[in-house]
Amino acid sequence: MDKGKQSSRQNNFKEMEEKLSLIQGQMESTLVKEADFRKETEIFKTLHTNLRREEEYWRLKSKNNWLKAGDRNTKLFHKQSKFRESKNNITHINHAEETIETFEKIKGASVGNYEKLYTRYHTSDLDIKYLFLEGILVMVMEEMNSALISPLR
To answer: Has residue 94 been placed in a domain?
Structure first.
């Protein structure tokens, strides 16, 4: 999640908490109406659902079981998550006795290696058929084949 999305979510949480606080303040100062109660419940459920989603996102991202114990997103939690994210990136590779650092070159080298690995024979379709048939034992001799394909009498 980029910083824009994260700050947007945080702002959304703050807005929802403010709305909830406002409605609860109104309910304390006046008679509670059923509509206000429903609105409070709806905002509370939405806030709760969004907080759960946020916790699930960070639990999956960090690959830790911290949230099972009820820990909130602490500074240490975020540092470990960011460390894991930076550790899971490929910044460079050594290929053909040179160091490659750009994404496009790394991608090209990887594709080239797999093409080389999985295309051992650079032959035509006809050659491939003969290579395939090369491993099959010949059981029918030419004379037998001539007799088998000759017209019926």
So the answer is: no
Q: What pTM was estimated for this model as a whole?
A: 0.34
Could you give the number of structural domains in the chain? 2
Do 69 and 13 sit in the same domain of this protein?
yes
pLDDT tens profile 99-118: 999 888 998 998 888 888 77
Residue 92 placed within a domain: no
pLDDT beyond 60 at 132? yes
Q: Using CB atoms within 10 A of its CB, is residue 119 exposed (0-12), middle (13-18) or buried (19+)?
A: exposed
Domain encompassing residue 127: 102-149
Q: How high is the pLDDT of residue 99?
A: 93
Q: For 39-97, how does the pLDDT look when each residue is reduced to its tens digit (9 = 90+)?
A: 888 888 888 888 888 887 777 766 655 555 555 567 776 777 777 777 777 888 998 88
DSSP calls for 75-141: HHHHHHHHHHHHHTS---EEETTEEE-SHHHHHHHHHHHHHHHH------HHHHHHHHHHTSPP-S-
